[in-house]
Design goal:
This protein has eight helices and no strands. It is mainly α. The protein has a single domain (2-143), classed as Serine Threonine Protein Phosphatase 5, Tetratricopeptide repeat (Alpha Horseshoe). Helix 2 runs antiparallel to helix 3 and helix 3 packs parallel to helix 5. The protein is globular and about 45 Å long. 35% of the residues are buried.
Length: 144
């Protein structure tokens, strides 16, 4: 319904919707998590301003990315969310990048990779180059 309206939402309404969706972005019910991510994506696409309201949602997205249980469309939606966050500067991209690459384990590597790809696609060229260089350094350190 939000997407069909395609109108700028009042900031308070936008905040209320994001606040209601944020707690569902977790690995307890992937169907609800995916729906919450879809709502978040539509809100950001329609009205990407007012970065402060996304804090809890972004933190929950990072936690969900680290879940060993996540798979399928939920990983794609997470990638889309991180791309929009980077494109609209809804969070500090360096802090977000560092949060995503910290404490990576083999069970969440594919999801983190998709999330990082989304974030890197969304940020400016200078940030892209820096993030890519950091990733190359981590891969070299990890394997050599």
């Amino acid at each position: 319904m939000i997407y069909l309206l395609k109108v700028k939402l009042p900031k308070e309404t936008q905040k209320d919707i994001v606040d209601v969706a944020a707690p569902y972005i977790k690995d307890e019910d992937f169907f609800l998590a995916q729906l919450a991510l879809e709502v978040l994506i539509k809100i950001i696409e329609i009205n990407p301003t007012n970065t402060g309201i996304y804090k809890d949602s972004i933190q929950n997205c990072v936690k969900l990315t680290k879940s060993a249980l996540i798979q399928g469309n939920t990983t794609s939606r997470l990638s889309d969310v991180f791309m929009l966050i980077g494109a609209h500067k809804l969070a500090d991209p360096t802090m977000l990048f560092n949060s995503l690459i910290s404490e990576i384990n083999k069970n969440c590597l594919a999801t983190v990779s998709k999330a990082l790809a989304g974030l890197i696609l969304g940020v400016d060229e200078k940030s892209k180059q820096g993030f890519i260089q950091q990733l190359i350094g981590k891969v070299r350190f990890f394997y050599f």
